[in-house]
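Help wanted!
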Amino acid sequence: MFSAWQVGKLFGIPVYVHWSCLLLVVLALGGAWEQSSLPHVLASAALVPAIFTCVLLHEFGHCLTARAYGIRTRDITLCALGGVARLEGLGKRPWEELFVALAGPAVNVAIAFVLTLVFLPFGMGLVPRELNGETTGNLAGSFVLTLLAANLLLGFFNLLPAFPMDGGRVLRSLLQVRLGRLRATELAARIGLVLAVLIPILGPAGWYLLSGEIQFMPILVFVALFVAYAGQRELWAVRRVEEERARQEEEEAIPEVLPVEVAAPTPSRNGTE
Ligand SMILES: [Zn+2]
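Answered by r_m:
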C-alpha cells in the first residue's frame, strides 16, 4: 500500500500506519512546546500513540465481530482522521451489519469505563481545571482524563448517523429491514450528506457552548469531506451490485427462447412450389 507502512499483523490482519499520523505527532509536540515544560511535551506526545491504540482497538471491535459472521478483513489502516478497516463484505443479514457497526464504538465506551476507574484516585477532590499543575500525579491524571474524553468522543462521534460512519451503518441496517439494501443505502447516504454539511458547523458550536471560546476546527472539514465522498462512493457501489443482481434475476426469469425459423414463402424462379 503506497503512502502507508505495515507496522504489524494482529489476529492475522495486517495493520498499516498512514504518513498523515506523523503530522499529528508534530502538531501535538508543537502545541505542548508552547507550554515549555518537558514533562508536558512528553505527556502530550504520548497521547498520540495512546489515542491511536484506542482507535486500533475500535477497528478490531469491528473486525473480530465481522469474523464471527464469517466476514474477513483485508487490512486496517490508521490515518490522521482515524482508522479504516477494509472488510470483505457487509454480512448476509441486516443485523450482522448492525452488530459489526456497533462493536467499534462499544470498545471505546468499555475503554472509557476502565479509564474512569483508573482516573478516580487522581480525580479525588480535583476538578479537571486543577490538573494543569506540574506534579507527576497531575500530569498522569490529566493524561488519563484526556484519554477518557477522547474515547467518549470517538464512541459517540462515530455513532452520528452520517453514513458510512458507524452510526450511518446502524441506520442503513435498520432501514434495510423495511426498504431493502439499495433504498436503505440511498436514504442513509442522503442523511449522511446533510450531516457532512452540519458537522463542521456543529463541532465549533458545541465547543462554544462548553467553553465559551470560538474555535475553527479544520479537521472536521476533512471529516465532512471524507463522509460525503465515502458515502457517495459506497452508494454507487451498492447501486452497481443491485443493478447486476436485478439483471441476473431478469435473465434467469425469462426462459431461453430458441429462435424460431419462419420459412416465408418465397416465389420460386420457375413459378412452381
Ligand atoms: Zn468504527
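OP: Thanks! One thing I noticed: The two ends are 75 Å apart (CA to CA).
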